[in-house]
């Protein structure tokens, strides 16, 4: 199928292609950081205010979890929906450009998450993974789940 091109403000545009220039897209992607997302910070601050002490992005723990409670062997990850493939079977068709790259990247991230979970479980860790938007929308239920593990009632 050939894309349909049209003129918009003296610029030739193809709707199926990226709407940002290569430079704009590069800057957007450079701004994405692996730590300190809004959801991660929100969860960490709430836990801290409740008196819980943790380590952030501890490199001594396999997979470098976002938050770790070494005493309880609890590793917490706050995953972004895009990067970690939430509803991947449905959402992968949303990618319109550079599909091979994104399919490969996100599927590798999903596989790596499974590997990290398995390795931590083998080492006796309890792994909790939350989607970023779930933390933002349902912070109390995420805190409740963490407290269940910390208090040993899981």
Task: Report on this structure.
There is one protein chain. This protein is of the alpha+beta class. It has one domain (33-150): 3-Layer(aba) Sandwich (Endonuclease, Chain A). It has helices at residues 22-31, 38-49, 81-84, 88-91, 99-122, 132-137, 139-150; strands at 6-8, 11-13, 55-56, 67-69, 74-79, 126-131. The strands form 2 sheets. The chain has a 4-stranded mixed beta sheet, with helices on both faces. It has a two-stranded antiparallel sheet with strand order 1-2. 16% of the residues are buried. Residues 1-9 have low confidence and may be disordered.
Full CATH superfamily name: VSR Endonuclease
Percent in strands: 5-15%
Distance between the termini: 53 Å
Identify low-pLDDT runs: 1-9
What's the helix count? 7
User: Helix and strand succession?
Assistant: EEHHEEEHHHEHH
The CATH topology corresponds to Endonuclease, Chain A
How many β-strands, per DSSP? 6
Largest β-sheet summary: 4 strands, mixed
User: Quick one: overall form?
Assistant: globular
Radius of gyration: 19 Å
State the helical fraction: 40-55%
Entry keywords:
154 residues, alpha+beta, Endonuclease, Chain A, four-stranded mixed β-sheet, two-stranded antiparallel sheet, 7 helices, 15% strand, globular, disordered N terminus
């Amino acid at each position: 199928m050939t894309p349909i091109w049209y003129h918009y403000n003296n610029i030739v545009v193809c709707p199926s292609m990226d709407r940002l220039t290569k430079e704009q897209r590069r800057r957007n992607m450079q701004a994405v950081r692996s730590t300190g997302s809004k959801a991660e910070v929100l969860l960490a601050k709430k836990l801290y205010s409740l008196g819980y002490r943790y380590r952030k992005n501890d490199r001594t723990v396999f997979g470098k979890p976002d938050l770790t409670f070494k005493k309880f062997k609890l590793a917490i990850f706050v995953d972004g929906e895009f990067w970690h493939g939430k509803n991947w079977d449905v959402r992968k068709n949303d990618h319109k450009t550079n599909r091979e790259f994104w399919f490969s990247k996100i599927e590798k991230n999903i596989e790596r998450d499974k590997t990290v979970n398995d390795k931590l479980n083998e080492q006796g860790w309890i792994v909790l993974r939350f989607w970023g938007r779930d933390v933002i929308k349902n912070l109390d239920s995420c805190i409740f789940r963490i407290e269940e593990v910390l208090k040993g009632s899981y």
